[in-house]
Specification:
Length: 263
């Protein structure tokens, strides 16, 4: 049966709607496929020791479970109370099991314990690994060696999570020479005085280590002002505000992972 003019136009419209709909769907599918293949961009979190990187990171990983993965570094420094080899936060039983610690001390230790423990190794082991090319970057910080192994980043990326690297300024410079393409975030303290107070209150450093960290912090604070090193510099004065800013910077990558997790 011959179609009326109206019916022909309506069919054409419908088919063009179908074409544009399916084109949008294909585009969406394609971009999902690409981002699943490429994976989310890693995040480099840097800044002086005591600026609040771990504090912010813990909140982020708690709020966005299944979105972030921490690149567990290697270090030659000794574990702090509660830190475990290559494991996350697991300090409470050990601290409570320790003898005669007043409750206040236990609580303050818990809040200061890092959730991002290391692989604790000797200098020899670390040097061997570096010589074998196992590390993406490594640095000497406050009298100890630190390094990001290729395996630690690959482990996280294999799970399609946002890989977080908590590294010092030397590490940042070395990562810039690689093809990792992370988002570079610097967490800065409001002032040297406040940084010193935070580090002292944390009770994790000897006087010697504290002074070394403060020296490194001065250089770090200066360098963070240089344009082009970091995508964003966040001053961690008010914790809520700093956390809000950090989330704003990462929300695009967070959404990507959440979308990928849904499909
Ligand atoms: N906005 C803030 N206001 C007050 N205290 C804070 C704030 N942010 C972090 N702190 C405290 O400062 C101390 C240092 O923070 P944190 O351990 O997170 O620093 P960091 O940058 O991870 O240090 P490091 O590089 O040595 O691991 C901690 O005791 C933490 O509770
Ligand atoms: N270049 C690297 N720096 C690292 C790495 N892991 C940690 N760090 C930085 O070291 C200091 C001190 O850490 P702490 O745990 O002893 O307080 C801090 O600034 C970290 O960002 C690493 O693999 N490479």
């Amino acid at each position: 049966m011959a179609l009326t003019r109206k019916a022909v136009i309506s069919r054409r419209r419908n088919s063009s709607v179908c074409v544009s709909l399916s084109f949008t769907m294909y585009l969406r599918l394609f971009s999902r496929l690409i981002s699943a293949m490429v994976g989310p961009r890693p995040v480099v979190l840097s800044g002086p020791s005591g600026a609040g990187k771990s504090t912010l990171l813990k909140r982020l990983m708690k709020e966005y479970e299944g979105v972030f993965g921490f690149s567990v570094s290697h270090t030659t420094r000794n574990p702090r109370p509660g830190e475990e080899n290559g494991k996350g936060l697991n300090c409470l039983p050990m601290l409570l099991g320790a003898t005669l610690l007043p409750v206040a001390d236990v609580l303050s230790s818990v809040s200061s314990v890092s959730s991002e423990d290391y692989h604790y190794v000797t200098r020899e082991t670390m040097q061997e690994g570096i010589a074998k090319g196992d590390f993406i970057e490594n640095a000497e910080f406050s009298g100890n060696m630190y390094g990001t192994s290729k395996a630690s980043v690959q482990d996280v990326q294999a799970k399609n999570l946002i890989c977080i690297l908590d590294i010092d300024m030397q590490g940042v410079k070395n990562i810039k020479k690689t093809d990792l393409n992370p988002i570079y975030v610097s967490i800065q303290p409001p002032s040297m005085d406040i940084l010193e107070k935070r580090l002292r209150d944390r009770q994790t450093e000897s006087e010697e280590s504290l002074q070394k960290r403060l020296d490194a912090a001065r250089t770090d604070m200066e360098l963070s002002k240089e344009p082009g090193i970091f995508d964003v510099v966040i001053v961690n004065d008010n914790l809520e505000e700093a956390y809000g800013k950090l989330k704003d910077v990462l929300i695009e990558e967070i959404t990507k992972v959440q979308e990928a997790n849904k499909s």
